[in-house]
Amino acid sequence: MTEFTITEDFPKSEIEFDLRFSKPEACLDYLFKQKWPDGFVCRKCGHQHCWFSSRKLYICTQCEHQHSLTAGTIMDSSKKPIIYWFKAMWWFTTRRSGVNAVNLKELLGLGSYGTAWTWLQKLRRCTI
Fold first, then answer.
1. What does each C-alpha distance from 6 to 19, 30, 74 come to in angstroms?
2. What's the pTM?
């Protein structure tokens, strides 16, 4: 998995979190800055220019290698909106009593307990 390090002040309250990450674009911008703090760099050829595709991929203008912000992360291949993942990570990391699969299912309005349970297992593996 790709390792992300928080290099800035993270929201201190849920209200601040909701204001900052209420749109998918804000979440993607955050991931972009974490993955490429000095701007895009193709991991295949080292080129620094890309274009953004309709499939939300960054494509190198030189070698056309495709880069996904969520590849290699717990969000990889997920069909759920990225804001759901950010909210799940927020609750998982900030609730003193923790969050269980039933809570997560209700909080996010997920259709199945199995999805919530799988997400929590992925989040728990990240903390090891």
1. 18, 10, 16
2. 0.84
